[in-house]
Prior knowledge:
Elements: E1 3-4, E2 8-13, H1 17-28, E3 33-37, H2 53-58, E4 71-74, E5 82-83, H3 112-115, H4 117-125, H5 142-156, H6 182-193, E6 199-200, E7 210-211, E8 217-218, H7 240-243, H8 245-250, E9 254-258, E10 260-268, E11 271-279, E12 285-295, H9 299-309, E13 326-329, E14 335-339, E15 355-358, E16 377-382, H10 403-412, E17 416-423, E18 432-440, E19 446-451, H11 456-475, E20 480-481, E21 501-503, E22 527-529, H12 544-564
Parallel strand pairs: 1-12, 2-3, 2-12, 3-9, 4-19, 12-22
Antiparallel strand pairs: 4-5, 6-15, 7-8, 10-11, 11-12, 13-21, 14-17, 14-20, 15-16, 16-17, 18-19
Helix pairs in contact: 1-12, 5-12
Amino acid sequence: MAEKLPKTDVVIVGMGWAGSIIAAELGKEGLKVVGLERGKERGLKDYYVVHDELRYAIRYELMQDLSKESLTFRNNQKERALPMRQLGSFLLGEGSGGSGVHWNGQSFRFLPYDFEIRSKTIEKYGESKIKGLQIQDWGITYDELEPYFDKYEKVAGISGEEAHFGPERSNPYPTPPMKETPLTKRFKDATTSLGMHPYHMPSANLSEPYENMYGAKIANCQYCAFCERFGCEYGAKADPTVAVIPYAMETGNVDIRNFANVTEIIHEGGKATGVKFVDVLTKEEFIQPADTVVLTSYVMNNTKLLLHSKIGKAYNPENGTGVIGKNYCYQILPGSTGFFEEERFNTFMGAGALGATIDDYNGDNFDHSDLNFIHGGSISINQSGKRPIGSNTVPSGTPNWGAEFKAQSIKYFTRSLNIGTQGASMPVQHNFMDLDPTYKDAYGLPLLRLTYDFTKQDKELYNYIGKIADQIMLEMGADKVNERSNLESYDIVPYQTTHNTGGVIMGAEPETSAVNNYLQMWDAENVFVVGASAFAHNGGYNPTATVGALAFRAAEGILKYSKEGGMLA
Length: 569
């Protein structure tokens, strides 16, 4: 029998960026908040030994334990889905701060085009351009979301500069861009000579010390190259445990309970009454009653929890009806690897978001009239720092092991450069998430099942942008460029990006979306589902800044709901 705890105003499930922002905003306004995080508490003291590539980058110290809860995967509905036994394509964070602890820190705003993608594409190219795609407008415009982007950037202290294709901003970035390096300058010179418009990548690795509106003091980056998959022991990378959670606790209205794994949303009469969770250390079950339930866990976990709790209509890929599990998207990653015979670069130095970017081929910044795809991607050189175990870049044709592989790895460790693209991902009817009928987690609950494969749209975008990346690399002076294989079926094994989106998407009407533009569920007005699960497609950038903006918007909506009730407009 689960123990029933005292009722609270709001219970939040997951204490990453979205959960911590909402807790801080609600706590300062006097609402009583319980935050449930299934992983352990973390802070700067936990990162002092973080420069251990084997422990953190290879053995995934900060990530979800797949022996307790995983997901199953298949490329299409004819295949049998099998469980992920080890992390590969994406890395699910766990513990206080969530994936906001181990991120690189690249912090872009989605483009105005993204929020009205269906309307803008049809208006310019006609309805035939979107045939086969399940795209939709998000129910909010960039202009409506801009003040919340501004709030997020001020909390995180983002370092950046104005971009040629950047959307309008109400304020400049809180801190200047990061250092110019020989690599970023070379990329900028090459792209400028090709008629493109480079700018310094917006970064949550701060260029100078900064104090945010919550009183958090964030240090300046040391360029140590241990960002992605690591916490920052200097407190120089904005993450929730540094920038937000301490303030939330200081309000006196926020109680965070770690090792609390939420297994069900309890509801009756169309409204949630609370959540059930398991203490993962003692195995005890508890019920946390609340007036409002807020889901801010990772994309897959938000979707799984709603499907298991039977809140909202599950998506049916046969006829496209239903909304929970709909529009799963990922990212398309064309790029270019160049090799330099004489020159050497200090690529072992860097920071997660130290880089330069062009948006000339992102969104609808270029003409798609004669192209068989829509959208595009940001193209960047990212000097995040090559670490010895994970960096073995060799020319095409080199054996995968043996003496030649070792010799080429050593030779090109400081003589190879990579240009990468974050390519947008468009939803289609048969890429989705549901509950697996066979496999269960450690608590006896069905695993989430992911059905996903690359589409013709993805392959066309990949080939087009990849050629542009090669052109830039050659302009940068590479002696040779690796051949790029064609994009075939998606493989969940090699790491690609932790930029998963969809499943609980936002929109203007309940027939095609799960939540409104405050991230309030149409089918349960006191449930808010916040995160990249709300994205109706995935854009050409990292999702974090847009998640942060939506979190501030949702916090405003939850406060309004606590006073007025009903569906927000």
